[in-house]
Every structure is written in structure tokens, then in C-alpha cells.
From TrEMBL:
Key word Protease present: yes
InterPro entries listed in its UniProt record: MetalloPept_cat_dom_sf
Record-level GO BP terms: proteolysis
Name of the protein in question: Predicted Zn-dependent protease
Gene Ontology MF: a single term: metallopeptidase activity
Natural source organism: Atelocyanobacterium thalassa (isolate ALOHA)
UniProt keyword annotations, A-Z: Hydrolase, Protease
Length: 234
């Protein structure tokens, strides 16, 4: 039986217990891409911290769509249709990304590596610099976060994605493409509105672009501590 524990990546003792960053074999779906598919990327915008790049070493990536909190009121047919449309749209985005990285949807949340919830992202608050008594609330319609854990002496991570239930179909698809892109390893943003990982939402429904794909490929060629042994996990 595996043993798991949640960890904080900011602790020096935790960082010191990890192996040096190493490069995993390139996933076959990315390896088989034509080298000339795109010479351009925004890799320089993708963040790498002391852990390294947030890549998946165990494939396919297991995704769970969490609809538990949104299936209690199926007596209301309009709400049922909205839920079904949201799920269908998110699955479309998963299918699109699965052409470039193996992804499988699972029905057991306990085994999930990425959990997608039909829920409002947590509100971010910040103090107003001119008046400390005023707190500004930053609302978001979608958000991705991550956490680390150890399983069988291997450092792993889990991604949590929240996508609002109040978006229309097009906006849901745009948000799902964007957040799943983060979830599978592109922890950064493009400055080109034609890319799915464009830093801001806009009216243009950007498909997964060649630049998005090439950026994903470049990320998976970079070193990480994720997926490698932890030396002192006891």
C-alpha cells in the first residue's frame, strides 16, 4: 500500500530531500510531432521554481470531472441541460489536449491527478495600497492550483481546476482549454491572443495553437524533480 503525505514546496528541508532535477523521456505523442510544426514558443513565459517544471511522468494523466455538488437538483430541466452542456464542453477541451499528451477521464476522484470542478474559483483579496482599510476582491471565472505529495518515495503533484458554472458555452470552452493547458504543464501565459494560453480572456475563441503545442513540447524537454525519488521522506 502506498503512503502519501501533503508537502510544502517552500520549505528548505523539503527541497533538500529531493533528487536533483532530471529530464523524463519525451511522451510519444510529443516526440512524434514534426519538428517543423512550429519553431516558435513562449517557453520563456513558463515558470519553473525550485521543484522544476510541472510535467507528468506517469501517463496517461488521469482527470476526474467533479460534478458531485451539481447533480442534486435534476428536477429542474434547465439546470440539468446547463450541467450537461458544461460537462460536454469540458470533455471537448480534454479531448483536444489528449492529441498532444495522453489523458484519460476516470470515475474515481481518489485516483485523479487533475480534478476539474464546476465551481466558482476562490476569491483573491488584496489590500489597497492607498488605504489599508480597503480590501479589493479579485473575481475569476477559472483557476488552476497545485499541491505536492509523496507516494512510494516518489514526488508527485495534483492539479485542481475550478471553472465557473456561469459561463456560456464558448467561454467555458475557452476557459477549459486554457486551464487544462496549465494542468498538463504550461505554467505560464502567452502574450498572443491567438494562443489558448493567452494571459487574458477576450472575445476571440482561441484554439490550441501551434505555439501552444510547441511550448508544451519544450516544457517536457526540461528538468524537474517531480516523478523522481525523494531521498529523505521519512
Amino acid at each position: 500500500m502506498s503512503k502519501s503525505s501533503t508537502l510544502s514546496a517552500q520549505e528548505n528541508e523539503f527541497i533538500n530531500s529531493l533528487s536533483s532535477p532530471q529530464i523524463h523521456p519525451l511522451p510519444i505523442t510529443l516526440k512524434e510531432l514534426n519538428d517543423e510544426i512550429s519553431l516558435d514558443s513562449y517557453l520563456e513565459k513558463v515558470k519553473s521554481n525550485s521543484i522544476g517544471y510541472l510535467v507528468w511522468s506517469r501517463l496517461p494523466v488521469k482527470i476526474y470531472i467533479d460534478e458531485e455538488n451539481h447533480t442534486n437538483n435534476y428536477r429542474i430541466s434547465i439546470e440539468q441541460l446547463r450541467v450537461n452542456q458544461w460537462i460536454s464542453t469540458v470533455k471537448k477541451a480534454i479531448f483536444e489536449w489528449s492529441a498532444y499528451l495522453p489523458i484519460v477521464e476516470i470515475s474515481n476522484i481518489e485516483l485523479a491527478e487533475i480534478v476539474i470542478s464546476r465551481a466558482e474559483p476562490p476569491l483573491n483579496t488584496e489590500n489597497n495600497s492607498s488605504n489599508k482599510n480597503i480590501t479589493t476582491i479579485k473575481a475569476k471565472t477559472a483557476q488552476t492550483s497545485y499541491k505536492f505529495h509523496i507516494c512510494n518515495n516518489i514526488l508527485l503533484h495534483q492539479m485542481m481546476i475550478h471553472i465557473s458554472s456561469n459561463l456560456g458555452e464558448i467561454s467555458t470552452l475557452s476557459a477549459a482549454r486554457h486551464e487544462i493547458g496549465h494542468g498538463i504543464g504550461i505554467w505560464g501565459h502567452s502574450t498572443d491572443e491567438k494562443d489558448a494560453l493567452y494571459y487574458s480572456s477576450n472575445k476571440f475563441l482561441a484554439p490550441i495553437s501551434l505555439k501552444d503545442i510547441n511550448t508544451l513540447r519544450q516544457v517536457y524537454k526540461r528538468p524537474t524533480r517531480i516523478g523522481w525519488k525523494v531521498f529523505n521522506s521519512e
